[in-house]
Amino acid sequence: MRLELLNIGKRFNRDWIFRKVNLLVEQGDKICLVGANGSGKSTLMRVMCGYMDWNEGELKISLNDKELEVAQLYKHISIAAPYLDLPEDLTLEEAFVFHQKFKPFDSQIDLNKVIELLQIDHQNKSISNYSSGMKQRVKLAFAILSNVPVVFLDEPCTNLDSQGISWYQDLVKTYSGEKTVVVCSNRRTEEAPFADRLINILEFKN
Prior knowledge:
The protein is of the alpha/beta class and 206 residues long. The chain has helices spanning 41-49, 92-102, 111-118, 132-145, 162-175, 188-191, and strands at 2-12, 15-25, 30-34, 56-63, 66-68, 77-80, 150-154, 180-185, 197-200.
């Protein structure tokens, strides 16, 4: 998948969050969006996902050399972010089945593999009973293992301890493959050590 942002700008009321964003994302890119808390990097990610409208400019999307409508982008991406919740009333197996209806996992991934990867021993409990760190692992696993060309990760190490951070880094390294991965972070060393491109949101401030 190819994403191209052409002079994209976003404002809230009269305040511009960013302007003149010109950015080309090619298939397989590993990108880290950096900036201080409140600087607008999560907003930019949501625009790139097609989850949020923008005020000026154009977002062009192509898949297999065919132009794609922004309204169809959600079918081809996965995302893990603090503002997106898990279905906590479900067990892990139920959440796995539910997720598969919308975003199937890569063909070699079944429920047993997910349980193994999560290093979990209480998969029969509802997700509401999981620790905050384990909930974050589930979010990340579901996003990274989905069979989509682009993965968006906003502050992926939220609620993860040092062991969880290593687990996350290994998961990306092992399963991202040719996928495009866009990470939104102000902790690049932990959250995007694999990134080959660094984009600072300050480049797009007035």
